[in-house]
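Let us practice reading a record.
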Amino acid sequence: MADTAVLLAVEDGIATVTLNRPQSLNALDAAMAEGLDAAFTAIAADATARVVVLQGAGDHFMAGGDLRVFKALNAEPRDARPAKVSPLIDAVGVVVTRMRSLPLPIIASVQGACAGFGLSLANACDLTVASDDAYFTLAYINIATTPDGSGSFFLPRIVGPKRAAEIALLGGRFDAATAERWGLVNAVHPRADLAAQTAALAARLKAMPAGALGRTKALLNTALDNDLPAQLEAERDSFAACTATADWEEGIDAFLDRRKPQFNRG
């Protein structure tokens, strides 16, 4: 499977999605877009999955779109190019939509380059951890184009409009410490510790109540688009639904018994 653009492994409740084009810095092409779609479709259908880890093979997370694909596109007449490139952009949009609708927490584990759609992809995850040698850039402006794959959607929501404009309009590169300070990254670890720290975070999430995690993610998805009455209603309905679960019962009993809860009972 070494030539497969995206690898999926589900073990002990943790689904690991690996971008697997290390020779190209995991740059996005059609095969990778298709592989990501297949992976997240499979995870959604897997009742054993509790947490997702998204990572890159080799030394980098993702260096954006494959510019060799775009170079080949330039052989086409200019008025024919939009129709040629649009299916790839639609495909990554589908992937991001699947990720946000998935009722499981998704952790991006980032090392090396996180550029272009790589940054969009990391921003679409619920949590992001990075190695101390990771670096980030939106980069689209540097090839005279605009963000895709949710790049313009999540960025201002995470860092605010002024910082988003700086990142998107200037196309600069920034390090992991800066990404953490701006809120794009939850934690930065030494490169040698990244895998272990990612695994520890995944294990922590796996031990939490899966239903409540999924409902919390759904509430966060709507929080910036709903008005206050709509969000309050959504919160009420979500809280009420949680009380009808065995995990709710376990959480209350464990708290009152002063013991660690054993969740994911349903």
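A brief commentary: The mean pLDDT is 96.
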